[in-house]
TrEMBL record:
It comes from Roseicyclus persicicus. This is B12-binding domain-containing protein. Residues 99-229 form the B12-binding domain. GO terms for molecular function: cobalamin binding; metal ion binding. It holds the Pfam family B12-binding.
Length: 241
């Protein structure tokens, strides 16, 4: 294992290997690496969180520092999307029956979208009914969020360039979806003063573990509400009889 300065430059070896494979001339290089991990018994969640996500962050950092062209990052993004689509399915989607629904979206103008894509995929595997919106304008995204009654909205914002779009969207959602629980993820969380100045309350989630904890809390709350509604309905039916 690399130590000291070498480790700080090279980064995590798993992420480095996956990042290299995602940019390889061979279209199948990253897929073969993922297949090896699956054959070794590595769970899908670990492949996403410990291999694909760190590799995507590493490539994004290199792009931000102008050490990697956008074409390479776009190619890697397309390959990750392809890998996510063919990963083994999870436990299905029981969440649709008990109200565990969510909408994940990148704010308008956001270019760093791999994190929210992976989060959507992992929560679908965990039984949540999740829709994912990427690349929509403010009006398009607001229209879709406004007519969808799923109780959780997860937004991704990576920094200053998309912060104005985040503020505008949250101001609109405060009126259109005051009932929604809004989770916020992305690099913008490293600027707590800006998060505190947002026009609507949000629940910051810094990593997948935090997102899982918040979604579990919301899921438990929704399940309790469902039980309460069923109990009320039964009492009314009994009284009517």
């Amino acid at each position: 294992m690399a130590t000291g300065e070498a480790a700080s430059v090279l980064g995590d070896p798993c992420a480095a290997a996956m990042a290299y494979a995602l940019c390889d001339e061979d279209d199948a290089a990253a897929s073969l690496l993922v297949d090896d991990l699956l054959d070794a018994g590595v769970p899908v969640e670990e492949i996403c969180l410990d291999h694909l996500a760190p590799a995507a962050r590493r490539l994004g950092e290199l792009w931000d520092r102008d050490r990697l062209p956008f074409t390479e990052v776009a190619l890697a993004t397309a390959r990750i999307q392809s890998i996510l689509r063919r990963l083994p399915a999870g436990r299905g989607n029981p969440g649709a029956a008990d109200g565990r629904g969510a909408i994940f979206a990148a704010v308008p103008g956001e270019q760093h979208t791999l994190g929210v894509m992976m989060a959507a995929d992992l929560f679908r595997r965990g039984g949540w009914d999740v829709s994912l919106f990427i690349g929509l304008s403010h009006d398009e995204l607001l229209a879709r969020l406004s007519r969808d009654d799923r109780p959780v909205i997860g937004l991704s914002c990576s920094g200053d360039h998309s912060y104005p779009a985040l503020r505008r969207l949250l101001a609109a959602l405060a009126k259109a979806r005051p009932d929604a629980q809004i989770l916020l993820a992305g690099q913008i969380l490293k600027q707590p003063d800006k998060v505190a100045d947002l026009p609507a309350p949000v629940v910051p989630v810094c990593d997948m573990a935090g997102a899982e904890a918040e979604m579990a809390r919301i899921g438990a709350m929704l399940a309790a509400a469902t039980v309460a509604r069923l109990g009320t309905a039964r009492r009314k039916a009994t009284s009517a009889a």
